[in-house]
């Protein structure tokens, strides 16, 4: 534990709201918002330029915690366990089945933007139907030397879907009046964030299976997916993508099924729609979004969007921009 945390007040993420931010430095108080939309669901957002670091000890009952760092730097650690250093664009997922203690250091040297979701075991089951042991089973390969603790943790990239959810959640918190509808929306966004992370973890398990099954193809398959993500506006065909990464079409399709549980075309469509939601949420027009995401026309884009997301893009965008 860093020396500068030893005399700092102990903070419990589940009790920050009850303590009225007791022990939180004034420079950081101004950057923090708190919400408890339902019992056991605690949301903490930070957005500001504190100008000074904040180091503190942490303590928590059994819980699932997801910290999404959009800007800034931080450190977090379990007492006598693993330590993590996070930068902008990284998220820390922790699942603990016992009381835990640790420490955190948040950097105030530059802009700092963080969203933390803290769920009790009961709240986790209510939102997802999963118990803490189920979550730990997904993270079992990421224990980071904490086999003496009933806790697992892993660092994830803040992929575009998770970033969008975090931004939308913060927007809903600040724009909506306190009411049952706001609580329901915040709970829904929390569940959506967990679903996105669970999907990511499942894909990572696919990576692990692929490493065992077809290790020679893995670099080419990851390269193929990276090409789709970086240039989804291009008219990719299976043949063109296979040629670009040096695989035949059959092995490329089989690899995508093993890695992402979908075909190349389905993966490209998912990437395009993920980008489309981000662009629409930022205020881009349907025509601009369709072009930037590689759809041949706005009408084709609207048809695909409606089929996959259950509503036309104009209706979806109106709901986002009106929050």
UniProtKB/TrEMBL annotation:
Domain HTH araC/xylS-type: 222-319
Pfam families in alphabetical order: HTH_18 (PF12833)
Classification via SUPFAM superfamilies: Homeodomain-like
Superkingdom of origin organism: Bacteria
Alphabetized PROSITE patterns for the sequence: HTH_ARAC_FAMILY_1, HTH_ARAC_FAMILY_2
Keyword Transcription regulation (UniProt): yes
Keywords: DNA-binding, Transcription, Transcription regulation
Protein name, UniProt field: HTH araC/xylS-type domain-containing protein
SMART domains with a match to the protein in the record: HTH_ARAC
GO terms, molecular function: DNA-binding transcription factor activity; sequence-specific DNA binding
InterPro entries xrefs: Homeodomain-like_sf (IPR009057), HTH_AraC (IPR018060), HTH_AraC-typ_CS (IPR018062), PchR_regulatory_protein (IPR053142), Tscrpt_reg_AraC-type_HTH (IPR020449)
